[in-house]
């Protein structure tokens, strides 16, 4: 076949495959629609988690691998620890080490803690700091940014302290980071960090926590308020208003609460970002889609 004939056949083939003006417009519209769809999907993936519905983990008879309601998020397991409190001379201090205790579920109220002895009656079977410093450990399957705590029941006072584990979790037995530690030493060398202490949580439908710190963690502790963990009292000891401590043998000023639920979001990027850092792949997808959309629009305008 001669070179001229070959070029003629190629030219005719290209002419047949080249869309007409109407077909070209239809093709361009389809490309534009596809790029717009990609851009929408990519940009939606960049929205911060705060724009999505919260996941809520509600206390129930389940204590291991318990699921949530709301957005897809990891399951959670619960356990309890207690440490006897030194109340001699009206002192308020938790000088003894924590040991695993009994987590108890109370329908309508939530989780309380029954410490080793003399602690099963009301209000002592709550998560409290009278006689024993009780804590509830929440162990999630993945990093979570908790933002709310809800109490189902409280009496006398309802101050709480929230801690998050910010150390490495790989190869770590979480029980070993708590057992035998005192309130004064729990944070020092075991990976636990204070999120904050919160006053009068029982008066709020859903108390906001972790607002300024925005920590994400797989392991969380919620405990009745203990000044040794952090958070200076804002009222007189024995008072039931503000962040205060109980003293002596009177219930006044001590905190008795039952944990009904917590809410938050799964962290999308780990660490303390709360999942608000977009993934590089999502950024690239959004950029490509938007650039393609701009190119299509310019080509359409140049052809008019």
Automatic annotation (TrEMBL):
Q: What's the superkingdom here?
A: Bacteria
InterPro entries membership: Ice-binding_C, Xrt_dep_XDP1
Segments forming domain Ice-binding protein C-terminal: 277-299
Annotated Pfam families: PEP-CTERM
State what protein this is by name: PEP-CTERM sorting domain-containing protein
């Amino acid at each position: 076949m001669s070179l001229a004939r070959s070029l003629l056949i190629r030219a005719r083939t290209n002419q047949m495959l080249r869309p007409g003006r109407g077909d070209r417009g239809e093709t361009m519209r389809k490309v534009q629609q596809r790029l717009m769809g990609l851009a929408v999907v990519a940009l939606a993936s960049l929205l911060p988690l705060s724009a999505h519905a919260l996941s809520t983990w509600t206390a129930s008879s389940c204590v291991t691998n318990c699921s949530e309601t709301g957005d897809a998020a990891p399951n959670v397991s619960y356990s309890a620890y207690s440490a006897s409190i030194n109340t001699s001379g009206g002192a308020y201090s938790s000088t003894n080490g924590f040991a695993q205790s009994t987590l108890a579920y109370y329908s309508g109220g939530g989780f309380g803690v029954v410490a080793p002895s003399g602690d099963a009656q009301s209000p002592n079977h709550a998560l409290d700091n009278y006689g024993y410093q009780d804590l509830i450990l929440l162990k999630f399957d993945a990093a979570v940014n908790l933002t709310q705590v809800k109490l189902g029941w409280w009496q006398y006072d309802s101050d709480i302290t929230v801690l998050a584990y910010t150390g490495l979790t790989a190869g770590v037995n979480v029980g070993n980071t708590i057992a035998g530690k005192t309130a004064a030493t729990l944070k020092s060398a075991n990976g636990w960090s204070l999120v904050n202490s919160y006053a009068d949580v029982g008066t709020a439908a859903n108390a906001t926590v972790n607002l300024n710190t925005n920590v994400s963690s797989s392991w969380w502790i919620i405990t009745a308020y203990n000044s040794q963990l952090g958070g200076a009292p804002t009222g007189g000891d024995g008072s039931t208003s503000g962040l205060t401590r109980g003293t002596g043998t009177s219930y006044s000023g001590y905190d008795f609460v039952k944990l009904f639920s917590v809410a938050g979001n799964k962290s999308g990027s780990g660490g303390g970002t709360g999942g608000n850092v977009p993934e590089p792949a999502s950024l690239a997808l959004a950029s490509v889609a938007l650039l393609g959309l701009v190119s299509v629009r310019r080509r359409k305008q140049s052809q008019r």
